[in-house]
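Below is how a single chain appears once it has passed through the pipeline. First comes the sequence as given, then the structure the pipeline wrote out for it. We keep one example in the README because the format questions we get most often are answered faster by looking than by reading.
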Amino acid sequence: MNGLPPAVLLGGEAIAVSACRSLAWSGVRVHALGDRHDPVRRSRWCHEFVAVASKEGVIERYLEWLEADGPRGAAILPCDDYGLEMIARNRGLLEGWGYLPVEGNDAVMLAMLDKRRTYELADAAGVATPRSTTAATPDDALASTRLLDYPIGLKPLQSHVFAAHYPHKLMVARDQAELEKIASRAFGPGVPMLMTEIVPGPETASCSYFTYVDDRGEPLFHYTKSKIRQWPKRSGLTCYQVSDRKIDVIDAGVRLVQGIGLRGVAVPEFKLDPRDGNWKLIECNHRFTGSLELTRHCGIDTARIAYDRLAGRPVEAPESYRTGVTQWNPIEDIRALLDYRRDGELTVPRWLVSVARRQHFPMMRLDDPMPTAASLGHKLARALAKLRRGRG
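Resulting structure:
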């Protein structure tokens, strides 16, 4: 279309919906690969959807389709960690087939998929991280408690591999008994764990930095957004967030991406530690995230920037963006309300006041309603199936 290279989006669910719309609005033909339930397949802007399933074995399925049926000359943009890993390990192969894989330093891309390596590189770059150690077995985990204070968080070193077995990205133990209980099941998938201190403070003390680093190592823009709530509380995904501009987070983000030699999309998340006043790195995503739609509403279209860089089109670096813009996941935030209310941190009236404003949503658009409808239908079907299993 219009002589532009097509785009191939890998995984990502709601993230892929936002990227698909941005690229298609620019006249780009979009092919999306994912699970058969992914909402992007229902978008009016998705020209082709290929159901390759997800999780275990999906890297091989991505490669099989790209070799046999993919549109040569296409830009390949990962919307999940499997896609990121596939590109980092097969860049030469993909380029040999005629593709344009997303810009990046492959060694750093793989390091950002490993929590231990992420922290090691951050420490070397002078970026503060929580105290941590690693464990490969339950016995290792219990022996490591002498190095850390409770509460202790357990994170899989490779969260996308762990997610094929359990949905949790963080498990928190508040004492020895709880750690024994968590460790007995956490190591079942065979994925080593990062054991880390939990930086105290509420979710609102978490802030993410967004940028795109060019081939000279220069960030093309600086953007931050903060959490308002997440679900499940303390260990889940953000369900309510707001754009802002926190200079200290920008400084920490720039120090990180330049210190580790990162190229391309960068989304490090930090949390302010009230004990020493430092922003501690929690993780660094090296791909589009669930905030992609929020960032676009603020005036920065990261998907377009990544595509234009690959296509050799001019990229105009954004000089400013809108702050105070929110993105809301209503269903998850209602469930979060129950958690926060149970712990005495939020009341229904205060929750109503917090959401009574103009909102933006990860997928919902009146001119492209089917991704949202499909997602809601799939969630309802899963809930009913779970209810029937419970009754059985």
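The CA atoms of residues 97 and 292 lie 29 Å apart.

See the next section for the split statistics.
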